[in-house]
Design a protein that fits this description.
The chain has about 550 residues and is an alpha/beta fold. The chain folds into three domains: about 375 residues, TIM Barrel (Alpha-Beta Barrel), CATH 3.20.20.80; about 60 residues, Alpha-Beta Complex (Oligo-1,6-glucosidase, domain 2), CATH 3.90.400.10; about 60 residues, Sandwich (Immunoglobulin-like). Helix content is about 25%, strand content about 15%. The protein has 13 helices and 18 strands. The strands form four sheets. The chain has an eight-stranded parallel β-sheet. Strands 14-15-16-18-17 form a five-stranded antiparallel β-sheet. Helix 1 runs parallel beside helix 2. The protein is globular, with a radius of gyration of 23 Å. Bound molecules: alpha-D-glucopyranose (GLC) and magnesium ion (MG). The site of magnesium ion has 6 residues, from loops. Alpha-D-glucopyranose binds next to loops.
Length: about 550
């Protein structure tokens, strides 16, 4: 396979519990993935990233690991993993595993041992245990808040039942943060990397890659009044638990571990870090190979904003010799087939649900925009991430009953935030089969909307106008014309609400305005919607120049 494959790769995110269920329990599993890998190769993916499948009590859908070196029985066995990997490699698909190093599950033996040990013991030193503040230590050690809502600290009980120390969890209380200043913790994770590298994994997507190191002394954090409530107008490393400089030593160390192995193994950071110039530190030559570009994901469907983020991305990443990446959807955000047409504020992670239904955008408009946005993304130089189901045009599911919800965000905010379940509904494969082909028994861990029959893969496969056919042809053209390896050149002479650029021998024109525009000369290679003499609103065209 070609050199530095990730530079132009299209990486397809599989969310195992919602991809394909082979044993009928209503939860997707590894044999289900293996059975459908050919469909992903045929779609045009270069690699698959699998969200976590390691042993876990599943309190945060597997992002709470209790054994890093085994497969959760819900998903299968290590032998199932080996079969998945060899099948993928036979199809020339690389496989990326999700590694969750910021925290373990509270069921992990390391944490159980830490709870059983005394304050100040080496076992407690693997995590962030602290005495509380105030009389009797009744107040949390500092004022940090969990990403999922509520305090980031939970108090433990001593063996005699009296209240004990507190432990830090930036996410759910079932996800205690490890202390990465511990040499022991670092050694364990080198071994975990080697365990999967020895089995042949092609790389790791590193969960919460910006969170591992906390500022010394764990100081209180109060965003300045001028900044947004999450402090998101500031450089991320102003927050004492995000983007601290010490994280980079960890990734340099891991880079060296991966380099011991043949083939080109890759580290991909999930780092919610801004500005992009700071994020680029994650992908310096001796650190990670890639990092998700969430600035691009967060950009609105607006030509000026997109031009700015595309330019800033290419500038920031090329300054360190890394490719930019591009992404529109994943398992943590509202699917872009809904998000790009929302007319209300919806902070990341808040999700949308029944109370938003009266305010939702026209789904036809939303899908039209999503297709146009994808046709922009897949023409950009660099590497692109797809999230399972976006190639079917799946929208966010907004009418999940409260009783079905599973995201800890929903519980930790008492239903104030819906959380992320709406992007995680099992995907439809076959219109006329139980659970639309997701599961042979028709079970599904989250209910699927009845409207998904017509979005099923087999219902779209032969329709040249379907979203699936659009993705297939864009991916084939992207490969044929070497767009991932190309360079972007903006074209002048268009209105401000039109994105127009050239990448190699392909010209891309996206009309984000309200009125149709004239179709420039050239053979039409692909179009995200229907042409109407010119290029209608919310439509992207690829032309041979
Ligand atoms: C990452 C994952 C998200 C998970 C969180 C805690 O942001 O993508 O799904 O809940 O980390 O591990
Ligand atoms: Mg199953």
């Amino acid at each position: 396979m070609a050199g530095e494959w990730w530079r132009d790769a299209v990486i397809y995110q599989v969310y195992p519990r919602s991809f394909a269920d082979s044993d009928g329990d209503g939860v997707g599993d590894l044999p289900g993935i293996t059975a459908h890998l050919a469909a992903l190769a045929e779609l045009g993916a270069d690699a698959v990233w699998l969200s976590p499948f390691s042993r876990s009590p599943q309190r945060d859908a597997g992002y709470d690991v209790s054994d890093y070196c085994d497969v959760d029985p819900l998903f299968g066995t290590l032998e199932d993993f080996d079969r998945l990997l060899s099948t993928a490699h036979g199809l020339r698909l690389r496989v990326i595993a999700d590694l969750v190093p910021n925290h373990t599950s509270s069921d992990h033996p390391w944490f159980i041992a830490a709870l059983a040990a005394a304050p100040g013991s080496p076992e407690r030193g693997h995590y962030l245990f602290r005495d509380g503040r105030g009389p009797g230590g009744d107040e949390p050690p500092n004022n940090w808040e969990s990403v999922f809502g509520g305090p980031a600290w939970t108090r433990t009980a001593n063996p005699d039942g009296t209240p004990g120390q507190w432990y830090l969890h930036l996410f759910d209380s079932s996800q205690p943060d490890l202390d990465w200043s511990s040499a022991w913790v670092r050694e364990q994770f080198r071994d975990i990397l080697r365990f999967w590298l020895d089995r042949g994994i092609d790389g790791f997507r590193v969960d919460v890659a910006h969170g591992l190191v906390k500022a010394a002394g764990l100081p209180d954090w109060t965003p300045p009044a001028a900044a947004g409530s999450m402090g998101d107008d500031l450089p991320t490393n102003a927050v004492p638990y995000w983007g601290q400089p010490g994280v980079h030593d960890i990734y340099r160390d891991w880079h060296a571990v991966l380099a011991e192995y043949p083939g080109e193994r890759a580290l991909i950071g999930e780092a919610w870090v801004s500005p992009l110039t700071l994020l680029a530190d994650w992908v310096r030559p001796d650190e990670m190979q890639q990092t998700f570009n969430f600035a691009y994901l967060a950009a609105p469907w607006d030509a000026e904003a997109l031009r700015a983020v595309i330019d800033a991305s290419i500038a920031a990443f090329s300054a360190v010799g890394a490719p930019s990446t591009w992404v529109l959807s994943n398992h943590d955000v509202v699917r872009h087939a809904t998000r790009h047409a929302l007319t209300f504020e919806n902070p990341q992670g808040a999700g949308i649900g029944p109370r938003h239904i009266p305010h939702l955008p026209d789904p036809v408009l939303a899908l039209r925009r999503a297709r146009a946005a994808t046709a922009v993304m897949l023409a950009l130089p660099g590497s692109a991430y797809l999230y399972q189901g976006e190639e079917l045009g799946l929208p966010e599911v907004v009418d999940l009953p409260d009783s079905a919800r599973q995201d800890p965000t929903w519980f930790r905010t008492g239903g104030e935030r819906y959380g992320r379940d709406g992007s995680r509904v099992p995907i439809p494969w076959a219109a006329d089969e139980p659970a639309y082909g997701f599961s042979p028994t028709g079970r599904s861990w989250l209910p699927q909307p009845s409207s998904w029959a017509q979005l099923a893969r087999n219902a779209q496969a032969a329709d040249p106008d379907s979203t699936l056919s659009l993705y297939r042809s864009l991916l084939a053209l992207r490969r044929e014309h070497g767009l991932g390896d190309g360079a972007l050149e903006w074209l002048g002479g268009f209105d401000a609400d039109v994105l127009a650029f050239r990448n190699g021998d392909v010209t891309v024109v996206a009309n984000l305005g309200k009125k149709p525009i004239t179709l420039p000369d050239g053979e039409v290679l692909a179009v995200s919607g229907r042409m109407d003499g010119g290029i209608p609103y919310d439509t992207t065209v690829w032309l041979a120049r």
